[in-house]
Predict the structure.
Amino acid sequence: MGGAYLKPLFLGFTARLKLSIWLCLLVASACYANPKLEAALANGAWGACPQLTVEGLSVSSFPLLLNVESLDIDISCLFKQTEQQNTGFESAQWRAPLKQLFQQLQNIPAAFNGSHIAVKRLNIKHGKQLVAQGELSLSQRGQQWQLNFSEDQGSNVELLVVAQAQTLQLKGLLTPLLLNTLAQQFKQTWLADERLANLQFSLLANAQNDLSVSSNFKLPALAASLDAQFKGSENWQLSATHSGFDLDGWTIPTANWQFHQKSWNVNVEEWQLSGSGTWQLQPKLVIQGSLNSDDLIALQQHFYTLPKPANLLSAVADLQFTWQDNLLSGKLKAQDIHALWGELRFDDGALNSEFSFKPEQGLQHSGSLALAQWDIGIPLTQLALNWQQAEFAPLAQWQSLVLQDINFKVLGGAAHIKQLPLALPNVAMLELDKVQLAELVKLHPELGLTMQGSVSGNLPVHFGEAGIAIADGRLAVEEPSGHIALTHQSLVAIKAQHPSLDFALSLLEDFDYETLAAEVDFAEDGQLDMQVKLIGRNQRVSPRLVTLNYRHQENIYQLLRSLRIGEQLSGQLQQWIDDTSSSP
């Protein structure tokens, strides 16, 4: 949209007001006319602004009936005058022609009551280009003057003026053909928007004290309506409320707007959204401001479908934006984010994003996300990542996103993923650094197991439609070497009942290991298969190095779910130990 949006509407409105006055004056001249004067008016021209050319004029006696075969109006001069007088929108310029109209009509003699003017062919031109063509009629009843214009392509405009009360009613219908013509002639491409097709409008203006205008607009293509109230000629304000409607696949609810000369405010109750900012028409349309929401859920559900199984629980947001040259750009800041990923909960999130949006191309954006904690059964803390969408794409196409520099803390160590495209399938390398075994065994203190040492390694994570998998992962202990101590109270009973386990369990009572390595595979259904090799010694059992091989298989999804719901897993392990120690 451009800076001169209101000019064509204002100039068209002004032209019809002036036309009413000039036709009334023409009637006054014809009232006292003799045949010679009538003959002179039958084919003539008016050189003032706007320029009029009359053909085939005929006059009947009282009540005055005036018929015009053809009337051409060139409104080019109106644009030149307006550009010279003002480069922006000032409501005071509406009041002057209204006052002039009412004064002229009140000065017309009462003898004109019942007068009627009919123009069979009205041609409204902008230079040599035809803007609109149709029939025009103007009639008077007391202090009321009514003008009707029926355009050949289906548009129509009705104007009712009550001179003494200084009120004016304007209503009509604008068809797509006329809107397209206006868009081309006045270089206002927004008028050709198909969503404005068959626009219906009605306005009631009162200039008796200060200027006030009440209006209603109906847009059948959007099944929407707009009600607006305009007050004041100097420090004016405009209040508007529009109904809910669908726009480019988005459902926009009812909203209340307030406009002043340089500022705007909006409130959307259904979205718990409020906003304010500034606007200008000249030298080009620019809208700036901020939007705030104390509950982001409604906005997220309307505008952005989260990838399954994500579910937003709560968040507050602030959006700073600028609309200029058909481009929306800005920054989004969201805080206090709480959400679920399936059964996994994450809390205290913060998001910052910069974006650009083009209506015909979509969104281009980048930003960062931070989470204080994500509880997957094993708490992940200090999670942070960046994302990038380099190309413009529809908002719902989250598959074009690329996550970068994913970092988080886990079990006293750190994890890092350099890059993770969201388009499936893909592979990302999860790098683990110095994960503390002591923190791992703390998850089950009832086992009486202590471990010292830190583990690092790489896990190739495969993302696909069926889920997440790991193939050929490698983990190893970091220097220095570690220590394992198994001191559960039932250990003695287990060794007594299972002599074959005596040596291995005795080693683990006080085991110093030099090597701990693991090969990790993980299937989409959550099944973990881990081969662990321990090399070390227990000086109290044997001074020689001993190699222990251990294979562990478990469904990690079930394990993490158990950890999240409390002590279920711990209870099961305790039961197993108790059952084993008491079995014959």
Q: What stands out?
A: The first strand starts at residue 43 and ends at 46. Residues 6-31 form the longest helix (26 residues).
